[in-house]
Amino acid sequence: MSRHVLKISEELLSRIGGHGAETYPHECCGALLGADGEAGREVVKLLPLPNRRHDSPRNRFELSPDDVRLAEKTARETGLDLLGWYHSHPDAPARPSEFDRAHAWPWYSYIIVSVRGGQPVETNSWRLQDDRSAYDSEAIQAVRASDPMFAGAAPHHSVPPAEEEADQLRSDECLSR
Amino acid sequence: MSVKVIIPTPLRAYAGKQDTVELQASTVGEALTTLTARFQDLKRHLFADDGRLRSFVNVYVNDEDIRYLQKDATPLKQGDTVSIVPSIAGGRGFNGNQN
Questions:
Q1: B9 secondary structure, DSSP code
Q2: What is this structure's pTM?
Q3: Is cis: bond before A50, omega within 30 of 0?
Q4: Chain A residues in contact with chain B using a Cβ-Cβ cutoff of 8 Å
Q5: What is the C-alpha radius of gyration for chain B, rounded to an integer number of angstroms?
Q6: ipTM given for this complex
Q7: Percentage of chain A with pLDDT > 90?
Q8: Residue A113 in contact with residue A16, Cβ under 8 Å?
């Protein structure tokens, strides 16, 4: 039994799957924003980001440092925490690869969606153990889009996106729940 | 001089749960050494066994990546903000089935 639980709405889960389907057969990626406290960890907003691994996008994803800083800035500006990251595994299981483990950080939640033939089929979440040796599974608890404080407009970004693709991905429609 | 170091969320547990640490340093290298001396559990997450900054760690001074400045020797001035930015990457691996 997992000792970690990640709360997230069905709608946001669906958007993660949709992002994976949209970029299939390439990997998609994005940031998970929300709150982590005594009531548990809950994702309330997504920040889809462009996959920077143009040489191998079918089996790799990578974000630029500026993407990571944008995610941190967006979290700060919206009073949220940067809880982790999501990405897709095209035609592969929704579990971390050795490459994932080598590049992961403790504490973050890592949602992986398996996309087969262009359709999202399975979504799991993981957390790297403190010694970086392995992952713990993190149970996904689907919740209703409940808290009205997070249901408002998406944040306004003062940092210009690095690519036109990022412009499209960061539309308010993509960000808001 | 007094500078501010911003700690990313995955490393806050190793830095007294603080998101920002203020310390005295005149270079980036000195700031990181002082930081990891104060919070020793941070060291293994920032530095490799050979003492070099891990390749998955990016460091910014204000809005500049130190790789394009003077790396560890980048000088700091009063009030500068040093940001530790984790590299984020991954993927299904080579064969598409298991890894």
A1: G
A2: 0.84
A3: no
A4: 27, 29, 53, 56, 58-63, 65, 67-69, 72, 81-83, 85, 87, 89-93, 96-100, 103-108, 110
A5: 15
A6: 0.85
A7: 75
A8: yes
